Structures are given as C-alpha cells and as structure tokens.
From TrEMBL:
Superkingdom, taxonomy of origin: Eukaryota
UniProt-listed Pfam families: Cyt-b5
GO cellular component: cytoplasm
Cytochrome b5 heme-binding domain: residues covered: 18-92
Full protein name: Cytochrome b5 heme-binding domain-containing protein
GO molecular function, one term: cytochrome-b5 reductase activity, acting on NAD(P)H
InterPro entries in the cross-refs: Cyt_B5-like_heme/steroid-bd, Cyt_B5-like_heme/steroid_sf, Cytochrome_b5/Flavoprotein_Rdt
Basic and acidic residues bias spans: 91-102, 131-144
The keyword Nuclease belongs to this UniProt entry's keyword annotation: no
Signal peptide, first to last residue: none
Alphabetical UniProt keywords: Heme, Iron, Metal-binding
Listed transmembrane segments: none
Keyword check for Metal-binding: yes
Amino acid sequence: IEMYHKGLITHQIDESSLRVVTESELSEHKDPGNLWLAVNGIVYDVSNFKHRAGQKVLLNQGGTDCSGSFNRFHAYVNCANLPGVVTIGKYRPDPKTNKKLDPSMPSLYEGGEEEEERPKPGRSQHPPVIFDDHPPVKQDEQKH
C-alpha cells in the first residue's frame, strides 16, 4: 500500500502479514551485521542502514525497543522507507521482563490493581524551587 505524505510516497506496512518478534529474540540482534531495533511496535533490521550520525548511534540501541529515542528525534520518519532497512516483524515485549519497579505500582501487563487516588491538578504539594544563581530581574527589564 502506498500513501502520499508531504509530497513523498510512503509504503505502509501490512502488519497482519508480519511475524511476531519477542523481546528475547530482539535482544539477540545487537551486533554490527546483525542489528535489529524495535520502533513503535515494529522490528527492523538496520544492519545495512547508514545513519548520518554514525553506526555507534544504532549500536547503542541495538536489540532494544528504541521507540522513545526514535520519536524524540525522528517522529516524522517512516523506518520502512529508509534505504538499507528491512522490516522483520511485530514487536512483543516478554511478560516476564515487565516487572514492577515499585511493588506499590500495578503492572500494565498484569492488569494491575485499582489506581490510588492522585492529588488534584493545580498546586504542587512540594514547595517551589528557588535558584539563587541568577540575579533578580529588575522591573524595567521584564517583558510584558
């Protein structure tokens, strides 16, 4: 399927035809020549992709779900369209690795418990932080 986006032809992935790649399997592909990344639920082989910031950028993220980093810098990019990138499958995290970091926090994969009541939006329960390293702004210097 092709779609037109900002004057470019982009190829959309038919996810129903993709195999499932687990977190365990993904983690085995983190070396040059065998480098996979998960981005937004899809696993890509980026072994032959030439990142303009260098291979080290990819190797640092190799074998992991790097959606957060990717979206921070390249949210507008469709990985499937990049030269040298091959679509491998759909990413599925391993349930056993989705452990609670804090026992009081429910796990998203386990359904969790009832959510604790949170403070209402508005005032913070913490006092404001005051930084003394900047001189005070004079009234005539403030912009309105």
